Amino acid sequence: MRALPFVLALVVAAFAIFGAGRAIGNSYAFFLGYVVVQYIVLGTAWNILGGYTGYVNFGVTAFFAIGAYSTVALYKLVPAMPLPVMVLIGGAIAGVVGLGTGYLTLRLRGVFFSIATLALAVVVQTLITNWDFVGGARGAYVLRPKMAPLMGGEYVQYLCVIMLGLCVIVLATARAIERSSLGYGFAAIRDDEAAAEAAGVPTLRLKLIATTLSGGFMGMAGAPLPYYVTYLDPTSGFNLNYAVNAIAMPLIGGTSSWLGPVVGAVLVGGLQEVLRVTISSAANVLVAGVLMVAFVILAPQGIVGLFKGKRR
Amino acid sequence: MNAILSGLLLGGFYAAVSIGVAISFGMLDIVNIAHPAFILLGSYAAFIGNSVFGLDPILSAVIALPAFYLLGMAVYQVYYVAFERRDDQSLRGLSFFFGLMFITEVGLVMIFGVDYRLVQAPYLGEKITLGPVELPFRLLVPFVVSIVMVGGLQIFLSKSFLGRAIQAVAQDQLALRLMAANPIRIKRIAFGLSIATAALGGAVLIIIQPVEPSIGREYIGRIFAICVLGGLGSFSGMVIAAVTLGVVETLTATLFGPSWSPAVSFGVLLITLAVRPNGILGR
After folding, report:
1. C-alpha R_g of chain B
2. What residues of chain B score a pLDDT lower than 70?
3. pTM for this structure?
4. Residues in chain A closer than 8 A to B29 (CB atoms)
5. How distant is the Cα of A20 from the closest Cα of chain B, in angstroms?
6. Residue of B nearest to A240 (CA)
7. What digits encode the pLDDT tens for the residues A82-131?
8. Which of A169, B23, B28, B158 is deepest in the core (most CB within 10 A)?
């Protein structure tokens, strides 16, 4: 499939999902849909760096929370600002943080980058906790408007539309990267960085592009969060679940293509919701971690890899 | 003055929690980011020994040592079969440890809840006063325990055959194999040792501060900052780095407030990586 038909197909799928939600007419469907689509965006964003170049970012919560808290700050400064603008700004800030972290650590071995991102999550949390303007340790309230702008209906439907739009953008970007020279450069870095460098691939620049894109999309995924939860404090904004899910879903689905994170997010996100309703909320957070460990040990190519292997 | 001194004592304690990573990351090249989770496991083992059986927390940790050693060997065996043999340590190996860390944390939350837990011992409230200087036992006991542990391991690694083999495995596996030593077995033993240190590290952690399952995350940055700053594979560098970080953190907490101290380790880590990635005493 060429790029344009693929994007059109994604848009049609997004409209179909949204239409189905409206047909059900239950706001729970939208709350659930928002979470799953958010994880598709987060997982794909992580996969652009982790799956394509092989550099593991454990600081998902840092980028996600930067997006969320930039919305809180903007909400306090300019309450009338439309949400899509906030999403763009949040994404831009998170992208710059990604670029900076990458610039300092990506010239070294990959594990140092991973360790730095782990520590980054703690530091950003420390900064936010000490920043009173966005609520500090007490947290901040964001008033969710009753009605969705432009289209009517509940506001959560609007949030869902924004998240679906982000999802279309991030999936189209990921697929375009896979099929461009950028993607081949990423794959060369993943498979043998020294050889790629020797063959003239500008590895540092490519890695910085990947980190910036990945961080920026994570920030965008986090930006609508304050409107979704209406009350945001550092403990929930920096919840380790976001990081574990964003890493587990691509690893479970398969890291080599854009389809992997989607499969992983739908399966794991759906399973978690079923467990949360039927058993307990502790069990539903455990499942992503257990599945991730099981998959990296037993099926390193993920679900998509299993199917590809059978066909061959 | 008291701040610097308690920083020094805190640094000794940081050496105790970092030495496991100094072994696994510095010598075996296994990036065990789940180490803080094992330390918390040690804390809870000390907590159970103390609150259920009324034992001294350090003694409980010593009793738990063999179990942690075996756990470490088991973890290494899985890691070797699933990742090291397939040469897939970077992406999936790291994710494996990340998953272990998360599972341990959630598991501890499910068993013990998110309340802060602490241990009791008759000496913990006491302190020695030397002129203007105060030495609380709460910091002094962890300091002594960790100095004994670090010193003991240093002697073991430099004097015994097994210890030298562990140091050799980092440098030249082939040469070791030619000397009829099995590098996998050596690495399994060394990783077992590194997890065993987490039992004692956890016990001194719960003596110093009350523990709840998620505080392990604060220690990831600290531990790796210490190991990188000290130079991988160098115990003396690690101790110097641990003491430095302890002092800087205590001074930061005194000057700017305790909520800022987690940021110190990240700053140290980033500056080290940017300026001198080999650490102060690195090879």
Report:
1. 18
2. 89, 280-283
3. 0.87
4. none
5. 35
6. B102
7. 888 889 999 999 999 999 888 888 877 778 888 888 888 888 888 888 88
8. B23
